[in-house]
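Task: fold both queries, return tokens.
Query 1:
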Amino acid sequence: MPRLVGLMAVDARETARARGLFLNAPDRPEFHLTVVDYVVRQFPQAGAEVPRDSMVYVWFDFGEGEGGGGVREPRIPRPPSGGLQRELDRPGDTFEVIGG
């Protein structure tokens, strides 16, 4: 089973067709017209062994409660920025750094 997640609709259709699979998009009744939307989920999962002429389901929108961060956008909450950060001097600190 090819990985279709992250592909545009037109590319997902071509990839499935080349492997003898059929695509169904439950969230898009006009799936045959969909071109530039990105696949966000697929069933069966990529890598699963399926016989030729099998139906593969793809979704272009996240379902209820799954969030909608998008395929290429980070989801909230963002990870911490990491790295060292300079601590600011306290006013009147005996060891205040002067200059840079």
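Query 1 returned. Query 2:
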Amino acid sequence: MPKTADIRLPDPSRWKALAFIALAQLMVVLDATIVNIALPHAQTALDISDANKQWVITAYALAFGGLLLFGGRIADLWGRKRTFVVGLIGFALASALGGAAQNQAMLFGSRALQGVFGALLAPAALSLLAVMFTDAKERAKAFGIYGAIAGGGGAVGLILGGFLTQALNWRWTFFVNIPFAIVAAAGAYFVIREPAGSRNRASLDIPGVVLSALGLVSLVYGFTRAESAGWSDGLTIGMFVASAVLLLSFVLTESKVKSPLLPLRVLLDRNRGGVYLSLGLAVIAMFGLFLFLTYYLQVVKGYSPIRTGFAFLPMIAGMITGSTQIGARLMTRVPARKLMGPGFLVAAVGMLLLTQLEIGSSYVGLILPAQLLLGLGMGTAFMPAMSLATHGVEPRDSGVASAMVNTSQQVGGAIGTALLNTIAASAATAYASSHAALGARNPELLKLQSMVHGFTGAIWWAVGILVVASAIAVTFINAGRPSAGPATGGSGSGEADGVEDEFKVPVVAH
């Protein structure tokens, strides 16, 4: 029985705070895809070469992915609210710079700055939820909303990017972030009340910061370069080797220093490790699908950017339903693995339908039901994953635990785009070579058939990746359902079916 002094009363403003945290998370997630739609227009306007256009995406991915662990540690050190507000203001200023860009250097620089401030903002947002919502049922609802946004924000970005690019111009895909950031920052400043005593004031682990940042940057850049230069390219291989050496050195350093950037106790917990790994694999499949469906709908089916964006609505609806109506309602009743494992399998079934894509495939008959299943499955799995990733960590570690969630997503996204796109390109080339006779008669038809064949070949891989993600979730994650009441510090209270009956959230006293 916990002592009275150990119990912290819930923050009366926590639900208002959730609205502003969710708004900021939506801004960060949709920014990852909103620029993709506008990229061809920005390239023309600023005279960016084909060789350099990838840096609009790569500059953001490198800064964001490389600095996430550092951002999570800063949140633990400075305070999550302060880091959250600073991240929002910086993101808004970087977005304004991008919208006003007059040349490619200015645009690339603004994207890198967006990545830097996003790396502060994203882990601070998730760790705020972790320390503000400690009651199991409320936590389920809060993370249901957060999980739906984290999963569906990318598709929302496609809709918004298409509308802004077509109705206004590409610069508004940057400017649109400014009102998001201002409202979220103002709301956070006045509403969020971070629990006292939850900071980690230990000295900053500078070697860990340098090794993790360089290691993650090398890994993300290696996969990004592989997409354009190939897997056998010397620099691509060099980046992977450097990443392996740097990240191994990082792990060895963290095991020896007094105040590690990423305490290994956070990473080596089997439940959190299972979440990070399965979530990263699921994101590989998802990001590849966003890319393929966008090209299929616009190039093969001839959809406009706006129509393409709206074509992703069933996936968003599925994610919201899966996260808030299935995941959130069942999370306090069943163990997380019984939501994540089946969730990833349902998503795999949706992906499996898309392996049947052909040039003349019906949107209503094939793509719509596939998206609904994919969204339902991902939404159901994402919600408990987001919650469990920060559940049971010490409050002083919640920032870096949150950063690991974002890191697995960011690295997964980079891997998914590069790996599946490379598989699709190879399959398309092989198909075109074996159907040269058709190319002589109708080169345009062969081009489209080769493209679709490449997509379906890569989607088969995505199906397999989701099945593996499901197996990892079921195998590694053994935490039982959370208790229905307020969480308290201490260890699990008992055993059920060989696993812990409940996993606890440490309570932070005011």
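Both queries returned. Flag for query 2: The beta strands are 495-496, 499-500.
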